[in-house]
């Protein structure tokens, strides 16, 4: 039986505009890390301000933290959260078949997007900066095709792909426990072990993909993720390390991740 991790707070809300917005309001008022989970969001959003569909029964939560590292280290927690999501799915279903991690912050199931992550640095009115790790999971329903960005990967749900039904409250316990273990590894051993574990679960490693940075489309072979978390592509003009981009697979499949 999975138990709630020691040292992490837990707040379950019936409805909120968005859990990341609630984290912003709470920043500076908590004494330790806390999970904020909502059964319904009225104004959920994803990366680059995109809308984020959150049907009833799906999972929406934010982990509010007060880490003391510099910004480049904080950003690496997208990999920590990705691995924790992967672990939570394995705990929920008892299998790893069909699960993969898509750079920079998506979890795939049978080739479709089942979960996304949105990291935001928060500035409370008083005190030091906080980190919000927003997570959305299609537990029971996936958004319709017209609700996602053109060219993005098809949305899928855990229920439709595996037949496993999990409530948001149950999934929160699984995820919180998994995250606490991965966070402890990250703090103790640094990014190296997290990077190795992430690469072992990476989608399309070794394949030709396209990274859209906003100013250019860069196509090349997905070689690795470097020690800074950058996507490394082998292109016709040489190896390129890309810190931020939307990734597209051949045959379609963009990154519309967020929360």
UniProtKB/TrEMBL annotation:
<dbReference type="InterPro" id="IPR003142">
    <property type="entry name" value="BPL_C"/>
</dbReference>
<dbReference type="InterPro" id="IPR004408">
    <property type="entry name" value="Biotin_CoA_COase_ligase"/>
</dbReference>
<dbReference type="GO" id="GO:0004077">
    <property type="term" value="F:biotin--[biotin carboxyl-carrier protein] ligase activity"/>
</dbReference>
<dbReference type="InterPro" id="IPR004143">
    <property type="entry name" value="BPL_LPL_catalytic"/>
</dbReference>
<feature type="domain" description="BPL/LPL catalytic">
    <location>
        <begin position="1"/>
        <end position="187"/>
    </location>
</feature>
<protein>
    <recommendedName>
        <fullName>biotin--[biotin carboxyl-carrier protein] ligase</fullName>
        <ecNumber>6.3.4.15</ecNumber>
    </recommendedName>
</protein>
<keyword id="KW-0436">Ligase</keyword>
<dbReference type="InterPro" id="IPR045864">
    <property type="entry name" value="aa-tRNA-synth_II/BPL/LPL"/>
</dbReference>
<keyword id="KW-0092">Biotin</keyword>
<dbReference type="Pfam" id="PF03099">
    <property type="entry name" value="BPL_LplA_LipB"/>
</dbReference>
<dbReference type="Pfam" id="PF02237">
    <property type="entry name" value="BPL_C"/>
</dbReference>
<dbReference type="GO" id="GO:0005737">
    <property type="term" value="C:cytoplasm"/>
</dbReference>
């Amino acid at each position: 039986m999975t138990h709630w991790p020691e040292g992490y707070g837990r707040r379950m809300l019936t409805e909120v505009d968005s859990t990341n917005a609630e984290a912003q309001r709470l920043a500076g008022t908590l004494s330790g890390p806390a999970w904020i989970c909502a059964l319904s969001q009225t104004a959920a959003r994803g990366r680059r301000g995109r809308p984020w569909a959150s049907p009833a029964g799906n999972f929406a939560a934010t982990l509010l933290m007060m880490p003391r590292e510099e910004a480049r280290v904080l950003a690496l927690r997208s990999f920590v959260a990705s691995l924790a999501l992967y672990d939570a799915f394995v705990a929920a279903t008892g299998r790893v078949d069909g699960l993969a991690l898509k750079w920079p912050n998506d979890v795939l199931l049978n080739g479709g997007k089942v979960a996304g992550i949105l990291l935001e640095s928060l500035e409370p009115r008083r005190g030091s900066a906080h980190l919000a790790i927003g997570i959305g999971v299609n537990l029971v329903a996936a958004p319709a095709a017209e609700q996602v960005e053109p060219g993005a990967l098809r949305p899928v749900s855990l229920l439709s792909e595996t037949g496993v039904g999990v409530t948001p409250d149950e999934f929160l316990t699984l995820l919180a426990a998994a995250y606490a273990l991965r966070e402890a590894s990250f703090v103790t051993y640094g990014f190296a072990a997290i990077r190795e574990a992430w690469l072992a679960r990476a989608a399309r490693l070794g394949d030709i993909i396209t990274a859209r940075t906003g100013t250019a489309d860069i196509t090349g072979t997905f070689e690795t993720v470097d020690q800074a978390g950058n996507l490394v592509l082998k292109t016709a003009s040489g190896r390129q390390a890309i810190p931020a981009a939307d990734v597209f697979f051949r045959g379609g499949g963009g990154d519309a991740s967020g929360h």
